Amino acid sequence: MVGVSTMSKVVLLSDDKAGFSMIEQLVPEMTTHILSFLDYSSLCSLSMTSSLMGKTANDDNLWKSLYHQDFQEEEGTVTPFNRWKAYYAATKTLMNANFEFVNIMTAKSLPRMSRLWLTAHWVTCFSDSGKRYTGYEAVMERLEDLFDSWEFWFDFDAFDVEARIRTEWAWVTMFTSHHVAVDGPLRITNVFELHDNRWFMVHHYCSIVPTGGAEDNE
């Protein structure tokens, strides 16, 4: 039997399926491989070009690969509560909410912070000294005092940011540097709850990592 090269197959398909784009005529494995180089926005846009590309661009393995590329490198440590595309989208909105927290802390904006937190009596905030503040009003008062302090200034270059989602609640862990005289970077844990398709913060915990770096405390 005479072998047919991949390029020859593409040419033959082009002759047989006039009206289809070149990428739609590739073998599925090659199409999936090509699409694996696209980012979130590009994949979403491509999925709306045709029914065939919509099916291909929504491939679960494709979104799983993109998730591990953008958010979590380790395989086997995440089990999505839904398909990988939905889990990727949820993680992206969660990370956006967490980075809004980072930006608010840098800007010292209490109005923006008040909109980020869930208005509930049970939300909690822990300071780096270990003191707990419970309830929306108490948390806002603590943050207002913190923002008003002339000593307070974060160089909020967050690193080692990781997120986990459990349907309607999630948590984000990260490390950040701090310009107040402390013994090391800060380890931060933020917990969020999903309401009306929006993530609201419900818990914040901050602790100082001893000198030696975050790596020594993993």
Automatic annotation (TrEMBL):
Pfam families reported for this sequence: F-box-like, SnoaL_3
Residues covered by the F-box domain: 20-66
Protein name: F-box domain-containing protein
